[in-house]
Amino acid sequence: MRMRGRVRAGLRGWGGVGAMAVVCTLVLACALLLPLLRTAGHGSTGTGGPGLGRAGQAAADDPCLNPAIKAHPEDQTLSPSGADGPTIEKIKAREGEKRKLVVGVDQNSYRWGYRNPNGGENADLEGFDIDLVHRIAQDILGDADAVQFKAIPTNQRIPAIQNDRVDMVVRTMTINCTRVGQVAFSAPYFKTGQQVLAPKSSDIDGYDGTLADKRICTAEGSTAFSKLDEDKKSGDLVSSADIRTTVPNQLDCLVRLQLGEVDAVVTDGALAASQAAQDPTVELKGSPFTTEYYGVAMKSDADDLVRRVNQILVDYRKDRTNGWQASYDRWLSATLDRDSAKSEPPPAKYLRKS
């Protein structure tokens, strides 16, 4: 990425707890869904071990397929456009110091959105998500640093958008079937999957029977908690696994693990890899057991902003010098695979909506 003058980010932390109930129900029989499914790219990416049928379940059982518009949640976005609309015009109309893009981000996810530990008390935010925010600000406002960052916990991402506290959230946010009914998403900008993180000395092998009697930590309002809760109820997660420990921010799970208060963490593999890079005593266990996509989240009626972000993503992925690949190489190649192919989402699909 090109070098920019640093801007001190004014961060506001919000409290509040209350996990979102993220439950997706099966709406069509497998026989009806089968013709609508992709040939690849959905469902499990790894093996969950004995007794965990969902990890290897066929895509025909995907409960997030929308029966009305026949699209998976990551495909329920609007076609790209570089035009301004009412949402963008409102952002541009802000005066003086307030003429900035207001974005909800993380400040604790290493290499995604975090404060440089060598940057002193007022260290700037850095990371893969932060690079994308700067790119969006550059396109909309003509200034990559015209951003007001707001640090928000995992469980406050959707309320922040719905209550107009932010224009968008760029915070490793998975697009799923419940969330697309609450906020609007861009096309996917990253591919990942849920994975288990545990001490290297642990006898946990992955998302399988070795989680019996283990205490598992997840972030409130995360897809990780939703998956564990759903699998616990359906019997696809060993019944004695304890999933009661939830925290506002994902990094808090790593702290609980370090203190011995939990035995494992379940989170996106991309985040788990970054946490393992921070603590050499822990490691990823087993393969990813879901396939998920990160998107930029915006208000449901902000059609023009969604289209603009989608156009920015098209250009960002094409830019081999200062775009997606350059950001991946800078921030993520050291903790994930040197080959970015596993993390780059497939070409976007868009809804036909005028």
Describe this protein's structure.
With 354 residues, this protein is of the alpha/beta class. Helices cover 24% and strands 16% of the residues. The strands form four sheets. Strands 5-1-6-15-7 form a five-stranded mixed beta sheet. It has a five-stranded mixed beta sheet with strand order 11-10-12-9-13, sandwiched between helices. Helix 5 (223-234) links the parallel strand 10 and strand 11 (242-247). Mean pLDDT is 84; it is low at 1-60.
Strands, helices and their partners?
Elements: H1 30-33, H2 86-92, E1 101-105, E2 108-109, E3 113-115, E4 125-126, H3 128-141, E5 147-151, H4 157-162, E6 168-169, E7 184-185, E8 190-192, E9 194-199, E10 215-219, H5 223-234, E11 242-247, H6 250-258, E12 264-268, H7 269-278, E13 282-285, E14 292-294, E15 297-298, H8 303-318, H9 324-331
Parallel strand pairs: 1-5, 1-6, 10-11, 10-12
Antiparallel strand pairs: 2-3, 3-4, 6-15, 7-15, 8-14, 9-12, 9-13
Helix pairs in contact: 3-8
Unreliable segments of 5+ consecutive residues: 1-60
Percentage beta strand: 15-25%
Shape: globular
Largest sheet: 5 strands, mixed
* Structural class by SSE content: alpha/beta
**Average pLDDT score:** 84
Order of helices and strands: HHEEEEHEHEEEEEHEHEHEEEHH
Distance between the termini: 34 Å
Q: Spatial order of the strands in the main sheet?
A: 5-1-6-15-7
Taking all Cα atoms into account, the compactness measure Rg is 20 Å
Number of helices: 9
DSSP E strands, number = 15
Helix content: 10-25%
